[in-house]
Every structure is written in C-alpha cells, then in structure tokens.
Amino acid sequence: MKSLFTLFCFSFFTMSAIAQTTELKTAVPDPDKIIQVVEISCGKCKMGLTGKTCEMAVRIEGKAYYADGAHIDSFGDAHADNGMCNTIRKAEVQGDLVENRFKITYIKLLPEKKSGSK
Question: What are phi and psi of 51, to 5 degrees?
Fold first, then answer.
C-alpha cells in the first residue's frame, strides 16, 4: 500500500511538472513584419464572440477574432481578477488573419495602466 501511494505521488508530481512547462513560441518578433498594438482578452467573456469555451481573442481595428498561437492561460489564470476573462489588455502582436482567425507569431503583453495614472 505504501508503494502504491508513493507511485501515485510520484506520477502526480511528474505530470504536474510536465504540464507547467508550456512556453510561448512567440518570444522574438520577426523584423520583416509590422508589430501591431491590439486589445487581447477572452473572446467569449469580453469580446462578444460566440463559442463554447474561453479562448484567446484579439481586437484589431474594432473587430474581434479568435486567436491561435497563445493559450488563454499563457498569461496567468484566465479567471483571476486580472485574468483574460475579466479584463481587456493591450498587447504587441505579429501574425496573419487566416480564415477569420488571427494566427499569432509574436505576442508581448503590455503592462497594465495603474488606475488614477495618466
């Protein structure tokens, strides 16, 4: 029984460690592409897009698109007070619009403006 418990704990911590190693593949901008500053948030919760689950979206020139290339939890818990399902943030992005989805190749979340600052 003790061996079974030890095996379970080892498996749980191993799987947890593997699950936490996801990195954005979008750390370096392409010098040949324009960097756009866009709004970024949950498409379903904050941008009025239809869908069954919370998914990352960008708003470019007033139009929202679901985005591929960055997961909604890439910037922390999406359902936290400052998460993507509860706030709209600004980000620098590069990518292309393909079949009504924005394919992110570079993303940098910009710092939040402090309330009361200009």
Answer: 175, 165
- The confidence score (pLDDT) of residue 101 equals 97
20-76: per-residue pLDDT in tens? 434 455 578 999 999 999 999 999 999 999 999 999 999 999 999 999 999 999 999
Amino acid at 88: I
Buried b (16+ CB within 10 A) or exposed e, 29-55: beeeeeeeebbbbbbbbbbeeeeeebb
CB 110 within 8 A of CB 89: yes
Which one is the CATH code of 26-109: 2.60.40, 1.20.120, 2.40.50, 4.10.320?
A: 2.40.50
Spatial contact of 41 and 48, defined as CB atoms under 8 Å apart: no
Q: What is the pTM of this model?
A: 0.72
